[in-house]
Design goal:
It is a single chain. By secondary structure, the protein is α/β, with parallel strands linked by helices. The chain is built from 10 helices and 6 strands; from the N terminus they run E-H-E-H-H-E-H-E-H-E-H-E-H-H-H-H. Strands 3-2-1-5-4-6 form a 6-stranded parallel β-sheet. It starts with 9 loop residues before the first strand and ends with a helix.
Length: about 250
């Protein structure tokens, strides 16, 4: 089986994990499936012995882990970001990938880092953390007992990606999470300038929608610039017509 491809680009991001033993278990779950890039956010300190005991021969994943104070900082350079959560709704996302669908999606993405985000053991990802991701992945579970242990969730996602591992197309680099955030902020400002937003929270949800679909589209820099140009031109046309009416 070809185990390179997108596996080397995948970052498992753990948000404010509460117990070092769970980090160790995640390290084992990742490495057995060919994924070795671990990212940890938050300022917690972890007991080395608890991490290493559960990591066993995957302790190098822990040793090489990246640390960030915030999730936003951790996602900056990624071209695709997905939060692992089973909860959906108005203030989260309206649709979700299954693990198998996510694997297919990732295999079609151009070059660049991919971040899969997992929340706290107690209550998962907050709404604002889910909003930072362009998409979500949900692992099907029994309605009678839907809760998964953190390392179990990482193992299931990692296993699915491993079994679907394939060569990804190269030759194009998608814009980063941070680039999308800044570009969409400018687009929304153009809409605001022409009085597009009329309802409460309309700007917020429009900005979220544009960020999500832009990241999922995996645009190149030149495509992103053309997309931004549409909004700039729309503002200029609207302002020109407004001046003509005066």
């Amino acid at each position: 089986m070809e185990t390179g491809g997108y596996l080397s680009r995948i970052r498992i991001v753990l948000v404010d994990t509460q117990d070092g033993a769970n980090i160790g278990s995640c390290c084992r779950a990742m490495k057995t499936m060919g994924i070795e890039r671990l990212v940890i956010t938050g300022g917690r300190e972890y007991d080395e012995d608890r991490v290493r005991t559960l990591a066993l021969h995957a302790a190098d994943v822990w040793e090489n882990a990246e640390r960030f104070d915030t999730l936003q900082e951790a996602l900056e350079g990624s071209i695709f970001t997905v939060g692992a959560t089973r909860r959906r709704g108005k203030f989260r996302k309206l649709s979700a990938y299954s693990p198998e669908q996510l694997a297919e999606k990732l295999s079609d993405l151009p070059d660049g880092d991919i971040s899969i985000v997992f929340g706290r053991e107690s209550d998962g990802l907050r709404d604002d953390e889910v909003a930072m991701c362009s998409s979500i992945v949900t692992i099907p579970t029994s309605d009678r007992f839907p809760s998964l242990n953190l390392s179990q969730a990482v193992q299931i996602i990692a296993y699915t990606l491993f079994t679907k591992a394939s060569k990804y197309r190269s030759g194009m680099t998608a814009v980063s999470h941070a680039r999308i955030r800044d570009g969409v902020s400018e687009m929304v400002q153009h809409l605001d300038s022409i009085g597009y937003f009329k309802l409460a929270d309309e700007r917020k949800w429009t900005e979220q929608l544009l960020k999500d679909i832009t990241e999922r589209a995996a645009l190149s820099e030149s495509e992103m610039q053309r997309f931004e140009k549409i909004f700039r031109k729309a503002e200029l046309i609207a302002l020109h017509r407004r001046n003509d009416d005066v």
